[in-house]
Sequence to fold (1300 residues):
Amino acid sequence: MRSLMNILRLGRKELWSLARDPMLLLLIVYVFTASVYTAATAMPETLHNAPIGIVDEDQSPLSARIVSAFYPPYFTRPKIITRSEMDSGMDNGEFTFALNIPPDFQSDVLAGRQPEIQLNIDATRMSQAFTGNGYIQQIVMDEINEFMNRNRAATDLPAKLSLRSRFNPTLEQSWFGSVAEIINSVAMLAIILTGAALIREREHGTIEHLLVMPVTPAEIMISKILSMGLVVLLASALSLFFVVRGLLQVPTQGSIVLFMAGAALCIFAMTSFGIYMATLARSMPQFGLLLMLTLMPLQMLSGGMTPRESMPEFVQDVMLLAPTTHFVTIGQAILFRGAGLDVVWTSFLALLIIGCVLFALSLSRFRKTISQMA
Amino acid sequence: MTDASPGNTSTKPEASPAARSPVARLAGVTINYGKTCALASIDLDIPSGIVVGLIGPDGVGKSTLLSLVAGARHIQQGRVEVLGGDMADSVHRDRTCPRIAYMPQGLGKNLYPTLSVEENLQFFARLFGQGADERRQRIDHLTRSTGLHPFLDRPAGKLSGGMKQKLGLCCALIHDPDFLILDEPTTGVDPLARAQFWDLVDQIRAGRPGMSVIVATAYMDEAQRFDWLVAMDDGHVLATGTPQELLERTGSTNLEDAFIRLLPEDKTQGYASVEIPPLDGDENDIAIEAQNLTMRFGDFTAVDNVSFRIRRGEIFGFLGSNGCGKSTTMKMLTGLLPATEGQAWLFGKEVDPKDIDTRRRVGYMSQAFSLYSELTVHQNLVLHAQLFHVPADEVDARVNEMVERFGLGDVLESLPDSIPLGMRQRLSLAVAMVHKPDLLILDEPTSGVDPVARDGFWRLLVELSRRDRVTIFISTHFMNEAARCDRMSMMHAGKVLDSDAPARLVEKRGAASLEEAFIGYLVEAGGDTAASDGETAAALPDTQPHSAAAHRWFSPQRLLSYSWREALELQRDPVRATLALAGSLILMFVMGFGITLDVEDLRFAVLDRDQSSLSRNYALDLAGSHYFIEQPPISDYDDLDRRMRSGELALAVEIPAGFGRDLMRGRTVEIGAWIDGSMPTRAETVRGYVEGIHQHWLNQQASRQADAPAVAYATIQSRYRYNPDIESIKAMVPAVIPMLLLMLPAMLTALSVVREKELGSIINLYVTPVTRAEFLLGKQLPYVGLAMVNFLCMSLLAVTVFGVPVTGSFPTLLLATALFCIISTGMGLLASTVTSSQTAAMFFAMVGTLLPAGQFAGLTNPVSSLEGAGRMIGEIYPATYMFSISRGVFSKALTMSDLHGAIWPLVIAIPVILGAAILFLKKQES
Fold:
C-alpha cells in the first residue's frame, strides 16, 4: 500500500518533469504526428521516375511505338542514346535501365523469328531494378502484342492467374508506412523517455536525494516505467486514431484494444531496457551514442522495415530475443490482417517473458549502480 | 614555505597603488546575460605591478569582469583597455594574448582531466610555439618549484584540488606572461594548499617583478594579503583601496565585517551576527556514532578509519578541502554508500541501507542543492512531505509551516532555478526539514552564498539545534563556519586529523586561529606536498620574448598540438572510442542485413480442390523455385483465412476443382492467388514471382502440347549488370560504407567541440594564440584518420564477410574516401559550432546526415528519380557523389578516368563546409 502510494507520487513527479521539458514534449509530438505522416506519404512508390535510356537500332514504327510507351510517373521520358553512350551512362548512373532494340527488329517480329531485345539493368539500384524489370517486360510485350494483334483476335491463355492481394488490395505504401512508423516510435520513445528521466535525475543530483528518503530503488524504477510508459501508450493511441485512421484514412483491421495491450507489453520491456541503458551511460551524450548502437538494430532487424524471411537465419534467431520483433509481428497481424488473440498469443507470451527478464535484469543493475550514481 | 599569516606579500608597493599606471582600464562596461545584469556600468583602473584582489560572493560579476580583461568575453558595452590597447580590437587581442595568462574559475577548468600533468603542460607550451628543448626545461622547472614533478605521469583529473590549481598555475605561467589573471584559484582547496599556492605566486613575482596579478576570491581572509582590493556586489564596485584602507574606512577588524558594512543598506537589513547559545542536555544521549568507517573505491581509499560520536542537538562540523572524504562519510551515514569496513549507528541503531524507517528520522541536503528544477517550490515541498509519509491531512499545514519559517512565501509558484541562490538554499533546507527529522546531514550547504545570506542560514541552524534539539552534522570548507560548530573534525585525505571543540583545537596547537591550527595538523599529517627543492622561480630561463610563432596567422605546430591532444583524449574515453572503432562495424552488419530488398523463402500453401496430377504439377513448380517454401496444404477457406491472418502464409493458391480436366479440354481455367498485402513492397515482389512462375509453367505446358500457339513474338533478355545474382547485400554494402563514414565521424566530431564548450576548456581557444582554423582543423585531423581506419576495416569486412569484391580501382576509392571523411568530419564541426550542448550537437549532426543521405542522396532511389526540394538537396549533397563512387569502384569496375566527374564536387565541398564552420566559431564568449 505504502509502496503503491510512493510509486504514484513519484510517477506524478515524473509527469510534471516531462511536462516542463519542452524538448522532449516536442519530440513526442513530432514523432507521433509529423513523423508518422511523412513516413506514410513520403515513402516512394517502388517505381517513380526511373531513368531509362533506349538504343534504337531499328528505327521502325514498332521501335518508335516502344519508345513512346515509357513516360512519367513510372519512368522518365526515355533518352535516345547510342550503344557507346549506353555503357558510360550505366556506369555513371545516368540510367537505371537501358533497352537495346536490335536492327531489323520489326521485320524479324513480323517474320515470326522471335528476335531478342536486350534490357540492361543497373542492379546496384535494387529498389528500382527488380520491379522495373517486370514493368518494362510487360510494357514492351504489350506494345508488340498490340502491334501484331491489330488485325487479329486476341488469343486467350489456357490458364488465367487471378491475383488478389489481401488486407491491402491496392498495395498502398501509406498503410504500411504509417503503422510501421508507430511501431518504431513506440519502441524508440519508451527507451528515450525512461532513460532521459533517469539521467536527468543523475545529472541534477536528485537521485541521491531520493535514496535517502523512505523509498526503495524498485519503487523509483517502477514509477519511471509506469509514468513514461503511460505517456507513450497514450500518445501512440492518439496517433493511431487521429493521424493514421483520421488523417491518413488507413482502415486498420483488428481490435485496437488488443493492439494496445501488445503495445503496453512492448513498452514494459523497452522502458526496462531504457533504464538499463541509462545505468550504463554517464551522461545524455553517452546515452545518445548507446542509443544509436542499440536502437538501429532493433528497428532494422525486427521485421518492421524489411521482411524477416530475407535475413540470414542466425539474425532471425537472435532477433527473437528482441521485444520489437514480437511487437512488429503483433502489430502487423492485428492491424493489417485483423488477427485475434487466438492467432497472436504466442507473440504476447514471448513479449511478456522478455519484458519480465529485462525488468529483472534492469532492477538488479539499477540497485547495484544506484549508489554510484549519487 | 608554509607561512600563511596574512599580509605576507613579498613585494610591497612603494607608492600608493592607485597612483601606478593601470595595467587594465574599464570605462562604462556593462554586461547583461538575458535579463540579468552581470556588470552595471563599471569604471575601474587596475594598477600594474602589484597583486589586485577582487572580493565579493559568487555571482556578483567577478568572473565576468576577469574574462573581459582576459579578452575571453565579447564586450557588449563600454571600453576595456588592457596592456595599452583596446580589447575590442582583435588585432590588439591577438598581439597581447601571449602576454596574458588566464586561469578560469573551477578546479582545473581549463585542464584536460584525462591527460597527465606532463601532457597538459606540453599542450600549453606547444600552443605558445615553444621548441622541444625549451618545453622540457620550462616544464621541469615549473613542476620542480611547485612540487608537481613527482606526479608528471598522473592524469590531471586524479590530482587533489590543491594540486590541480598548482597545475593550472603552471599552465598559465608556461609562457612568461606579463599579466596574470586568476579567477578564484583557491576555492575548495585546503588551507595548507592555499597557503602554498600564494607562496608560489609570491615566488614567481619575485622572479618577474614587473608582472601584474589580479585575483578574484570569495575568501575574505585571503584577501588580506593582497596589495589592493576591489569589493564588488551585484555588478557594482562597492569600494577600492588597500586592505588597510578598507578596514579603516568601515571601522572593522576583519574584511568579512568590512564587506558586510560596505553593502547597501537594504541588503543588510535585519542582519545580525550569529549568536550561538551553549549546548546543554545529556552528554550520553548520542545521535550518531561511527566506528572505524572506511570506504575504498578500487585501490583508492576515500575514507580511512573514521570514528566520531555526535550528541543529540549538537552542531558537529567536518572541515576539509574538496575530495578529502567529507561527502563520502556523510553518504555512508545516510546509507547511500555501504561502508567497506567499520560500523555506524544512528540513534543507537546500526545504519542499514534497507532500513526505510530510520530514513524518516534523517534530513539530508547534498552539495548540489538537489531540488527538482522542473517542479515549483510548492510542488517540491509537497512531494517531499508525501514521500516521507507525512500524514495526508497534515501535509498542507506542514508545508505552510515550512514556507513561513524559511520565508518562501513569495516564490511558491516559481521554479527553483529562477530564484536567488540564497533562497534556493533555504528551500533545500526546508525540503530536508519538511518531515521534522531528528538529524540533519548538510553537505557544504553554504558554498557559493554571500556572507549575509550565509549568516541568515546559520541563524536558522542554531534555532533548529537549540530550540528543536535537532542534531546537525555539517561539512564546510569555510573556517569561520567551522568555528561556529559545537565540535568539529578536521579531515584530510580520508583521515580525521583531530576532533574537538574549535577553541580547544586552536588551544591544543597553540595557534592564533583555527586556520593556523588546521595548517599545523596538515603539516603534521604530511600534507605538505610542496616540497620545493630550493629552486625559485627567479631562475626561470629567459627565452626570446614571446616567440615569433605566437604572432603568425597559421602555425602547423599549434594545429598539431590540438590534434595530438584530441587523439589522446579520444583514446582515453571508453564510450566514444568504442563507438568510433566498433560502432561502424556493428552498424554495417545491421544495415547490410537490415536494408535488404531480397524477398525469398516465402511461405506458401495450396488449396488444391482438384487433386489431379496437373494441379500437383502446378504446385510443385512454385515449390521448386527457391523463392517459395511450401507449407502443409490448406484444408478450406477458414483455414486459409486463419493462416493468412497469422502471417504464416505470404501466398495462398487455390486451384479450382476440375482444373486438370478443363485444361486438357482447352477450356480456360482460373487459378486464384492471394498475396499478403500488409507489406506492399514484399507483395509487389511476390506478385512478380508468381506471375513469372505462372508464365513459365504455361510455356512448359505449351511446349509439351505441340499444337498450342506460340506464346511470344519476341523475347526480352534482362541483364542485371554489376550484380548478376541481384543480391541486395552486394548493392547495399557499397552504399552503407559511405553512409556510416558520414554519420559516425560527423557525430563524434560534433561532440568534440561542444564537449569543450560544456566542460569549459574552450576557454583555451579564447585566451591562447591558437586561431579558429588551427583549433578546428587540429581537432578534425584525428577523426579523419580514425574514419580512414574505419573505412579500411569496413572494406575488409565487405570483401571477406559479405563477399562483395572490389572490382574497380581501390586507390581512386581511397582518395575519394579521404576527401569524403574531411567533409563528414567538417559537417560535424559545423554542427558543433552552432550548438552549445552535446545533446543538441548530436541531434544536429544526426538530422544533418542521416536524413539527407538516407532519403535524398540516392541510397535506394537515384537522385534523378526525385523531384522538388529533395532533388535539389540530392544534387548538392556530397554523399550523393560518394555513393556513386563507392558503387562504381565496388560493383562497376570503374577507375579514376570514369569517376573524376564525381570527385570534383567533393573537392569543392571541403572549403565550403570548413569555411562555414570556421566562420561560425567564435573566438570570444558572447
User: Anything to note?
Assistant: The CA atoms of residues 266 and 452 of chain B lie 11 Å apart. The two ends of chain B are 41 Å apart (CA to CA). The longest helix of chain B spans residues 728-759. Chain B touches chain A through 133 residues (CB under 8 Å).
